[in-house]
Amino acid sequence: MSPLVKIRSERDQMSAVERRIADFILENAQLLRDYSSQQLANALGISQSSVVKFTQKLGFKGYPDLKYSVGEAIARADNGDTPQQTTARAGASDTSPAGNLWRRKSEAEEATRLINSPETIQAVAAAIEQAGKNGKVFILGLGEDDIYARGFALKLSLLGILTVHNFDTARMTANVSAASPGDVLLVFSEHGNHPALCKISRYFRERRGQVITVTRHTANPLRTLADIALVVSAHDEQPYIQPLLYQSALQHLLDGVFVLLCEGHDDRHAQLLANLDRIQLMLEP
Fold first, then answer.
1. pTM: predicted TM-score of the whole model, two decimal places
2. From what superkingdom does this record's organism come (predicted)?
3. Nearest to 251 by CA among 126, 122, 175, 144
4. Domains annotated on the chain, with CATH
């Protein structure tokens, strides 16, 4: 994993001082070779030991190792070693607001992809597939999180998977009382600290159901209750940009799960096509 991607993906779990170091490196990666650990510490007004501890926490032997790794990653990108890096460079050459947003979204999606292993995505798809055969998939999200809960519930319904979607905690609590072993509860919560969602998740686990959470890549109460946790890495200092990055990375993550449910299952694929045809007929005059 590129050191810059690693720093970006781990940022949400860092302390305030660590985030300042991370942001400086991400914003000044090209200039990092000219900074010693002491100079970096002076620029940020922190101790040199804080810089050293930061690099070691990321898995590097020390600051020189981090600086070399960052320089090597930049050199590979400049040489266009991979399609992803070439694409990133193309986006970086566009300095317009739209071009910068495209680049930041690509970075957030890449970081999110790297922190959710293929095995985790496969496990989520397998749990939903199994629940779709013998039970139900409960889907819950509050506020803006319900936008993605609602959209994913529709996609699962198109595949013929029975979903129980709600954005009301009282109604979902009542619905969960009908849960059976093998059912799945998919909970969307960006920050993962809503007490009601945690209570519903505990109740669902008491019913011997499987809880899948979708949150930011942070330590949060809801994530600790998950049998499987999907996490999103998206950060920007601008308050109007950060939600856009989160939404883009989250949608990309969910699309990956949906594709797995479609591929390799001819009956699901056929059900999807049949439902799309029915919907089209309904929309025609």
1. 0.74
2. Bacteria
3. 144
4. 3-93 (1.10.10.10), 118-283 (3.40.50.10490)
